[in-house]
Amino acid sequence: MFLPLLLAAAVSTAAPIDPSGFYDATHHWRKIKEPERVMQPLPDQPSYDAKQVREIAANVLLFQRANGGWPKDYDMLAILTEDQKKALRDSHPKTDTTFDNHTTHSQVDYLARAYVLLGDPAHRAACVRGFDYIVAQQYPHGGFPQRTPGAKGIAGLITFNDGVMIGCLTVLKAAAEQQPHFAWLDDARRAQAVDAVQRGLACLLCCQIKADGRLTGWGQQHDPVTFETVGARTFELACIAPGDTAEVGQFLMSVPAPSPEIVRAVDAAMAWLTKVKLTGIRVDRVPAPREEFVRHASDYDVVVVADEKARPLWARMVEVGSDRPIFASRDGIKRYSLAEVDRERRTGSGWYLLSPVRVVEREYPKWRAGLRPAQGGLLR
Fold first, then answer.
1. Which long-range contacts (CB under 8 A, 24 or more apart) does 55-63 make?
2. Phi/psi at 265 (nearest 5 deg)?
3. Residue 364, pLDDT above cutoff 50
4. What is the rounded distance in angstroms from the CA atom of residue 44 to the CA atom of residue 41?
């Protein structure tokens, strides 16, 4: 009964909704060639400003498929032409929905915030449909596939890469905890979220990779039956993935009253990330003759340069057991140097990353210092 007053206050005080959850898909839409899309970007297609929440939310509604999910690799902030809008409306029955490239969970989160900010029932209805889609796609053991449970190939794997597993669990956790943007959610769905997060946490612990008897981190993809790290696309090898490990660790550190098992998992993951940190090198882009590839074009190359003053880096993929950085071209052959990878993949994938440094050096020590004895599981 107090929701209208709550919404009115939110409209008057809330800042623009952060659209960064859409940036990965935006990059793919604007920079990666994907002829299978139902519509293509125009040259220099304009975008809405982050302050234009109503317009962005209208786009999010337009992109939603009939089954409640969203297709990947479109720009939610693009100012669309009438022809593009028609193509989207005509494509609503398609079942190309996915969590890949930070898709679907980012739209659900945005619509939840838009509803609190604007009070539009259409945003609430679409958010609920998206929430139901997320819940329906979770494996009984708690993992999330890239696309569909039980599907063949990449689509059915438990996926950490590109924000799938942690993105879905973060939205569900917000709903379970009745965070402000989900305070309006009904009790039945909140109970579903609580259960989904509990099962998701159990899956995270099952997937943590052991090497030589010690817990390490998580891979980009895991087998939905054995929970072992596995490869996906030919250049994505079975590995331990520092970027995904940092993301999982960050999520586990957000759990209230973490169990001893969660504490042990985080401690081991942070110790492993510290062990595999790379120093004394930096990664440069250098000019190169423009070359057209199947999915992208490049007028630069990527090289690794010795630099004792460089910031710490982590490889995208690390070999299980040896802890050596590994790389691959589309031929799927494991290599131990970026220079051995062909230019198409050198410029088409990010092979080194900086993001774990914040988790390892700042967030983890703060979390460890504030730990209290475990008092049970998540969300009593």
1. 55/79, 56/17, 56/19, 56/110, 56/114, 57/110, 57/111, 57/114, 57/118, 57/120, 57/123, 60/107, 60/110, 60/111, 60/114, 60/126, 61/111, 61/122, 61/123, 61/126, 62/88, 62/89, 63/88, 63/107
2. -65, -45
3. yes
4. 8
Section 54-75 average pLDDT: 98
Residues 180-218 pLDDT 10s? 999 999 999 999 999 999 999 999 999 999 999 999 999
Q: For residue 42, give the CATH number of its domain.
A: 1.50.10.20
Count up the domains in the chain and report the number: 2
pLDDT of residue 360: 98
143, 38: one domain? yes
If pLDDT is split at 50, 70 and 90, which confidence band does 7 have?
very low
- The partner residues of 282 in beta bridges, in order of sequence, read 305
Predicted confidence band of residue 380 (pLDDT cuts 50, 70, 90)? very low
3-state DSSP helix/strand/coil % of the chain, to nearest 5: 45, 15, 45
pLDDT grade for 15, boundaries at 50, 70 and 90: low
Q: Are residues 96 and 190 in the same domain?
A: yes
Q: Please give the single-letter amino acid code of residue 287.
A: P
Q: For residue 337, what are the domain limits?
A: 281-357
CA distances, 29 to each of 26, 52, 138 (Å): 5, 20, 27
Measure CA 306 to chain center. 31
The answer to the question of residue 249 being in a domain is no
List the one residue out of 346, 276, 351, 353 whose CA is nearest residue 313: 353
- Residue the block writes with tokens 């052991």: 210
Residue 254 has pLDDT above 70, yes or no: yes
Tokens of 74: 């479109």
